Amino acid sequence: MKQIFFYNSCRTIFVGVSLFLSIQHLEAQNNNISISWNKTIIISKTTPTLQLVENPMVRPGSPIHKPTFKALKELGADYVRYVPWFPYPKMAVAELKPPTGNKTFWDFTYLDSTMQAFMEATQWHSVIINFSTTPAWMWKTDAVVKYPEDPYQTCWDYNQGTQLRDTTMKEVAGYFARLVSWYTKGGFTDELGKYHKSGHYYKIPYWEVLNEPDLEHNISPQLYTKMYDAIVMAIKKVSPETKFVGMALAFSNNPEWFEYFLNPANHKKGVPLDGISYHFYGGRDAADQPLDVYQYSFFNQADGFINKVRYIESIRKRLSPHTFTTIDEIGNILSRDGDKPIPDAYWNLSGAMYAYIYLELSKIGIDAAGESQLVGYPTQFPSVSMMDWENGKPNARYWVLKLLKENFGPGDKLVATGINTSDVSTQAFETKEGRKLLLINKRNKAIRLQLSDASGGWANYVDITTGENPPQKIKLNDNSILLNPFSVAVIQFRN
Fold this sequence. Notes:
This protein is an alpha/beta fold. The chain has helices at residues 65-75, 89-92, 109-121, 170-184, 221-238, 255-261, 291-319, 344-364, 396-407; strands at 11-15, 31-43, 47-53, 80-83, 127-129, 187-189, 195-197, 206-208, 243-249, 275-282, 324-332, 368-371, 413-419, 424-431, 434-441, 447-450, 458-462, 472-475, 480-483, 488-493. The chain contains nine helices and 20 strands. An eight-stranded parallel barrel has the order 3-4-5-8-9-10-11-12, surrounded by five helices. It has a six-stranded mixed β-sheet with strand order 15-14-13-2-16-19, covered by helices on one side. Strand 8, helix 5 (221-238) and strand 9 (243-249) form a beta-alpha-beta unit. The longest helix is centred in the middle third of the chain and has 29 residues, at 291-319. The protein is globular.
């Protein structure tokens, strides 16, 4: 994978909390940070990244289309996940009607429109492509599943049926093989022998097979594994160099999925188990909770998820130790429709939670931590957005990711680090650029920290004062660091 580093001869520290400005209700107690630079606890494998989900606000012609893909390109992340999905059938499904004796119904008009922008914005970086929705007609249903003629109108009940009509899997495998051929080989031959030319010759390093099958179609681990095997083998004939990510589970609390799918004995001979993925979203315990209440819930839920990750890793290491893990949806969902205004500080809280999960995943040895999602908006999970859907500016969730990505990545050494408060998470790193420290303020209050040798250094930070602006930089005049609520930052030590 490609990792970008910014050279600096100074020692550097990463701070995750609100930072450096005078704020009322400042916590009076100073909190000390201790670092043992000569004691490595693990070498990081973790890449901070994100996902882009196809929806009308990212399509060409959207008022935020250009700034969205500009932000994606400037991020320069690896393992970026792209997911056209079922609420917009015309934007996600290439063959919305079954072939007849003399006609097929392949149409890539709306699929191509955003795929091209995505591939251009992520050029020279690895991507995970997941055209996650199977045509509804491939499933046994009581009636023909209808979809809107308007490609930008939602259809939340498109995914119907729990059994494929073709149990040999040839139909669904053929669909995905042709779809991949369209994007990698310049075109494909359809079911009736007619060639369809695309002119696309993209390289797709990773293909993720379906999305949240434990929710979408309520697929069992056994059925999913059969579908995975058939789809993977069909795609490999078209694109032999592509690697595959399996499962993409909505939930991580069902060991049966991991025990079954990661067991090579349950797969056909020759089917690779390159990678697995699953998701995490935190949320409020009650819809009317104020931020000062659910700030605690967010990090408690994150801790519960991290415990599940450790358990899943024990299964993976036992059954398929060479399989990598990407947790490619990490975020918070307050409500689907944005029934109440989202407080400005929420974006910093959610960004701090992502930074915290990224840190804990680095300690465990997870390969990629994908923040969800680049663009959400009212009716489309607005609270997981990394862009302001009204003005096209990146919000604090994006800037936290960019700060992490530009300072941390695979190969960094995590060294023994301590702090005498549970309100701040901290971790020191030895990187190719020098020494850095990650701090994350998990609370809606300013906290002062004491750190040796900080005086004369510099800090880059995201907090409630930076808003929708890039990380800010400040010089440290002494060894006392004041972090504002929910901040993330990087401190560079003087020589």
